[in-house]
Structures are given as structure tokens and as C-alpha cells.
């Protein structure tokens, strides 16, 4: 059975790629390319709404889609743990629907975050550096936020000692996310890059993921599209879609 898809944010970098993936997939039909000029009811006939817009409008778009009975795939950055908790409350009204939130569609990025969770309980210092192209509006990136939150959860589950993060009141020390400093770079020539640095007595561990082109996102978009058709409730992360284990 072919599922119809509307893409909100279709004119953006990720939105254009999502449209290409949908159009090339035999199980999906692209019925609407939505932009900031589109009316609120455009794309309402679609089975699935893919939201790859901006953090400012994403929540409204998602809630409207759920109210129309659509399945929702969220690729917009900025969905923090707090916002996801709100989405879970909203989804309690829609037992027969599902929403998947994917901070990053790259398999390498997902694996990098999983490895960061494994390492997090064993080091006293952790900092994240993320870099993206100059047109990325939000910072820190959704991937960096999610990575920091999951590392903090792993440390809490392991009863780790409090992190050492001195002088965080200084702006140059980055933004604290779940107690972990996150630094954002916006540079010409960069697609996406994330580095997590772990410091311990006498050693430093660096986990680096570097995206060189948008081709890195294609497989993840396909997997998330295929999963969202039967999704129920809220699913967070490409790791959950692919069955990559993480600490709870």
C-alpha cells in the first residue's frame, strides 16, 4: 500500500532531500511540498506529515497534523527533552497515531551518540563541540542537545560523581545542556560535525563524527519513513528506529 506524504519545510536543505527520498521510494507518494507561504490546510490529505521546518513553528505544525489524524515524522532541530515530554502528553489524546522525532538522520551520528553514552559514566569532564553550515539557525544543534541529555542520563543511571565543568557562567564556556558545556560553530565549508571530548586523569578521549555530504542522511530518512507508518506514541531517535541499544 502506498502512503501519501506532505513535507513541511520542503524548500530547505533537509526538506529538499526528504522530498527526493519520498519520490524515489515505491511505497510513498509525495502529495504536497509545504513552505512558509503554504496555507494551514495544505497537505491535510496526506497520510504522513514530515516536519523539517524551524524550532519556532515546528510544534504548531506537529500538533495541527496530529489533530488531523496524520502520522508525523519530525526532523526539525530543537526538540529538547522538555518539548518531547510535552509531545508525549499531547500524544495521549491520539492512541492510534504515532510521532517519530529524529534529531539526526545519519547512521554515523547515531552510533557516535551511542558510544558517547557508553563512555560518559567513566570520565569526570565532558564537553561537546558541534559545527554546521552558516545557514543553520538554531544552536546548539538538536543532535548535540540529545547527545548531552543521553550522556547525563547514562551518568545518572551509573551513579557517577558530578561533572567537572568550571566557570560556566562565562559566555565563552558554551551553553550548559544537562550540565554539559556545548559549543556551537557555524562555518562556511562545513556540512555537520560533532565532537565529544571526555577528560580523565592523564587522558582524553575524543569521539568525532564528520558529515561530508547530505548523502549521509538518505538511509536514515528512508528507515524513519518506513517506520512512521506503523508508529504509535512517541519514538525518539534513529537509534530507536534501527534498534540500536542505549541505556535507559
Structure overview:
GO terms for molecular function: 4-hydroxy-tetrahydrodipicolinate reductase; NAD binding; NADP binding; oxidoreductase activity, acting on CH or CH2 groups, NAD or NADP as acceptor. Catalyzes the conversion of 4-hydroxy-tetrahydrodipicolinate (HTPA) to tetrahydrodipicolinate. Its main location: cytoplasm. Pfam families: DapB_C, DapB_N. The structure is a single chain. This protein folds into 2 domains: about 5-105 and about 215-240, NAD(P)-binding Rossmann-like Domain (Rossmann fold), CATH 3.40.50.720; about 105-215, Dihydrodipicolinate Reductase, domain 2, CATH 3.30.360. Strand 3 (about 50), helix 2 and strand 4 form a beta-alpha-beta unit. The protein starts with a strand and ends in a 6-residue tail after the last helix. The mean pLDDT is about 95. It is α/β, with parallel strands linked by helices and about 250 residues long. It has helices spanning about 15-25, 55-65, 80-90, 105-120, 140-155, 220-230, 240; strands at about 5-10, 30-35, 50, 70-75, 100, 125-130, 175, 180-185, 190-200, 205-210, 235. The longest helix is centred in the middle third of the chain and has 16 residues, at about 140-155. A 6-stranded parallel beta sheet has the order 2-1-3-4-5-11, with helices on both faces. Helix 1 packs across helix 6 (about 220-230) and helix 4 runs parallel beside helix 5 (about 140-155).
Amino acid at each position: 500500500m502506498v502512503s501519501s506524504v506532505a513535507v513541511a519545510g520542503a524548500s530547505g536543505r533537509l526538506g529538499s532531500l526528504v522530498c527526493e527520498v519520498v519520490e524515489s521510494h515505491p511505497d510513498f507518494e509525495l502529495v504536497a511540498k509545504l513552505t512558509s507561504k503554504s496555507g494551514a490546510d495544505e497537505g491535510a490529505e496526506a497520510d504522513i506529515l514530515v516536519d523539517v521546518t524551524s524550532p519556532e513553528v515546528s510544534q504548531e505544525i506537529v500538533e495541527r497534523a496530529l489533530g488531523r489524524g496524520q502520522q508525523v515524522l519530525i526532523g526539525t532541530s530543537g526538540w529538547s527533552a522538555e518539548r518531547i515530554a510535552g509531545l508525549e502528553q499531547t500524544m495521549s489524546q491520539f492512541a492510534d497515531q504515532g510521532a517519530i522525532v529524529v534529531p539526526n538522520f545519519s547512521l554515523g551520528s547515531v552510533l557516535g551518540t551511542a558510544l558517547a553514552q557508553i563512555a560518559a559514566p567513566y570520565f569526570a569532564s565532558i564537553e561537546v563541540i558541534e559545527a554546521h553550515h552558516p545557514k543553520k539557525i538554531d544552536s546548539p544543534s538538536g543532535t548535540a542537545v540529545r547527545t548531552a541529555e543521553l550522556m547525563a542520563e547514562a551518568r545518572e543511571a551509573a551513579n557517577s560523581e558530578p561533572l567537572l565543568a568550571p566557570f560556566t557562567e562565562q559566555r565563552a564556556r558554551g551553553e550548559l545542556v544537562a550540565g554539559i558545556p556545548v559549543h556551537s560553530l557555524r562555518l562556511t565549508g562545513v556540512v555537520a560535525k560533532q565532537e565529544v571530548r571526555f577528560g580523565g586523569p592523564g587522558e582524553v578521549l575524543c569521539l568525532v563524527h564528520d558529515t561530508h555530504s547530505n548523502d549521509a542522511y538518505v538511509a536514515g530518512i528512508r528507515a524513519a519513513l518506513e517506520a512512521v507508518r506503523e508508529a504509535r506514541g512517541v519514538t525518539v531517535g534513529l537509534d530507536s528506529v534501527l534498534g540500536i541499544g542505549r541505556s535507559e
